[in-house]
Target: Nucleoid-associated protein FMM05_02090
Amino acid sequence: MFGDIMGMMGKIKETQQKIEDTKKRLDTVLVDEQSSDGLLKVTLTANRAIKSVTIDDSLLEDKEQLEDYLVLVLNKAIEKATAVNEAELAAVAKDGMPNIPGMDGLF
Model:
């Protein structure tokens, strides 16, 4: 019995390390998004840190339009990055969790 608990604790600790390693790796995974006309482009990491923003000069003439573009494109990019982040972390967590009866539906 105690061996099972110790084994599960070791597995959980190993999974925690894999999650931390995955989070670090996600800092290097880039997600690109752009407006439908290509006038605004953003790049984020899968951990949702903005790496670059490219704005076409024509958008600099209309502050309101630029603000609208930024909100739309950044929200789309964050949504994509979040999906990548959650999928990667869920996969690591699911693979690393011990088989605990009744807990299989949680992951």
Remarks:
- The two ends are 24 Å apart (CA to CA).
- The first strand starts at residue 30 and ends at 34.
- The chain is about 55% helix and 15% strand.
